[in-house]
Amino acid sequence: MDLTIRTKTMNAPLKAVDDTTDLPALMSALAEQARAAAKVLALAPAEQKNAALAAMADALRASAPSLLAANAEDVREARASGATESFVDRLALTNARIEAMAAGLDIVRDLDDPVGKVTEKWTRPNGMTIERVRVPLGVVAVIFESRPNVLADAGALCLKSGNAVILRGGSDSFRSCQAIHACLVDGLRKAGLPEGAITLVPTRDRAAVGLLLSGLDGRIDVIVPRGGKSLVARVEAEARVPVFAHLDGNNHVLIDKAASLDMAKTIVLNAKMRRPGVCGAAETLLIDKAAAPAQLKPLVGMLIDAGCEVRGDAEVQHADARVKPVTEEDWATEYEAPIIAAKVVAGLSEAIAHIEKYSSHHTDAIVTDDAQAAARFLNEVDSAIVLHNASTQFADGGEFGFGAEIGIATGKFHARGPVGVEQLTSFKYRVHGTGQTRP
After folding, report:
1. Which pTM value belongs to this model?
2. Distance CA 289, CA 273 (A)
3. pLDDT attached to residue 13
């Protein structure tokens, strides 16, 4: 691999990555570059950042053949290793997905620049004026698995919000990430911004993750894990810097007694089967007992006929002989596959209690024509995203108008839900006086 890492002065190039590379020294140099780039980005005008984003989108579109070729190698390797079809779906690029990446960058470019935005301003009795103003976080480390588009999303969002980013993709998408990263660097170069603003860790060595989690001597300000339970658990256990937690998407769809069958069928099929491997896919179907006589059999039959395995309680099994028995473990499982757990519940209270017990607090939905039931569900279900009469697959920053997302934060501190440019900023207070002193 032809890669040379330089220090922030751009002198003394480090040795290209190979089996003899000093990984701690390499990661330290990457963090040093990112820190230096973050200082530049924090002061970069919106026009310069937008020019970089436009050039990145152009490069992605122009490089589609090479992106597809690199991705094809990753997909072949994944299939050879026995990867599931849902995993391959997350990994695979198509012309449409490349265009979606580029279009996402266009949307991010057109968003208002959050850096320097005054969110509040007031004057104290002593005449001092205080402003609360948005500022970048600094250096963001994103550790992600499978989906190579995360690299473009995270790079664009961090750039727009004035942050440098260090990206460590999964080994399965290594070639795809290299190809996408080259397009982003091309955009930075054309806009006159430092290439260290968007850094891809140039090795599959898993020890690099541990070094990122250490914070690299204070050079990393926040870590965003984007992957399965094992990755998130490791990050939360080992990280020495703040983490935007992204837990698994164990998402629910509740069919209320006042739901329209046609709407219920449309939403449930989309929520589960549009892309079963994404974090917004529904994993559990709850059906109000009062709705079951009319809705249970059609919904379960529809899912099975569409190729979805249904694991249900006794009532669900009775509705269709093809249903498999559900286990306690199923209620807490993110399948990332065409499998769904199903249960008949005795009303809204039992449904909310079930969601509270088993949900990962990511995304949960209710289908109902009863406005009061919908309001209660939206108020009482404590998840980052709650929906009424809409598919859980809308759990996506692009669908929220953010252009892209760096992840869905399921914690409650700083950011929650899709993390876009605004959530990638913090704030400071600017105080303007005329000579005041405190008595």
Report:
1. 0.78
2. 24
3. 38
pLDDT tens digits, one per residue of 260-290? 999 999 999 999 999 998 889 999 999 999 9
How many whole angstroms separate alpha carbon 50 and alpha carbon 34?
A: 19
Ramachandran region of residue 22, left (φ > 0), alpha (ψ -120 to 50) or beta?
Answer: beta
305 contacts 293 by C-beta, under 8 angstroms: no
- Nearest 5°: the CA angle 328, 331, 336 is 125
Number of H helices, E strands in the chain: 15, 16
**Residues 19/25/29/31 CA torsion (nearest 10 deg):** 100
Contact 90, 278 (CB under 8 A): yes
Q: What is the pLDDT of residue 248?
A: 76
Contact call for residues 271 and 281 (beta carbons, < 8 A): yes
Amino acid letter, 259: A
Distance separating alpha carbons of residues 163 and 419, to the nearest angstrom: 14
Listed in order, strand segments (DSSP E) in 157-296 are 164-168, 198-200, 222-226, 251-255, 282-288
Q: Which two tokens stand for residue 102?
A: 């580029």
> Where in the chain do CATH 3.40.309.10 domains reside?
251-399
- At position 208, the amino acid (one-letter code) is A
Range list for CATH 3.40.605.10 in the chain: 23-244+419-430
CATH architecture under which domain 23-244+419-430 falls: 3-Layer(aba) Sandwich (3.40)
Tell me which architecture the domain covering 251-399 has in CATH: 3-Layer(aba) Sandwich (3.40)
